[in-house]
Design goal:
Length: 205
Amino acid sequence: VMARAKPIRFAAGEALFFKGDPGDSLLGVIDGRVRISALSAEGKEIILNIMAPGDVFGEIALLDGKERTADATAMEPALLVALERRDFLPVLKQNPDICLKLIEILCTRLRWVSDLYEDIVFLNLPARLAKRILRLADDFGVESEEGIPLDLKLSQHELGNMTGTTREAVNKVLRSWEQEGIIAIRRSALTILERDALEAIVEFV
């Protein structure tokens, strides 16, 4: 598969593709991180996922040959590999194990979107924010003596886009947690000091 893939580099903030673009390739992250997002009719962005090294995306449009279902933007300088649909479909036909793996990825994506929708509908902001930070800790957290710093720079505006709210609302909750000693924020880097406290906020709802 990799023999058919083409390396592509993107600068920080550069768009990989937009919703509605032709879905002609599957993308894999080698280095850097990619934000997957969507815009409402009013122009409000919601961040659906963050892709890190080892992740693949673009599989929906690749498989059905239709348009992209979301936007993708490099959050930092990124190296990706692209596998064109015309090259990938013959590989699928010859390797059923890859088909099964793609089905597994699609199911994971579906569960993720369903979970995100339920969070926005049923959870209050502190619970949504705590749940998202915990998930980011699982994906990008680095254990240390001081706690769990996130190896990912996210602005409060971006956290708002991940939880369906505003930067101001996120700032208010984060400041409250910082005063309580649940988290620490230094130079825009967030560290979880009391993971149990965040888990309790999610479970309390």
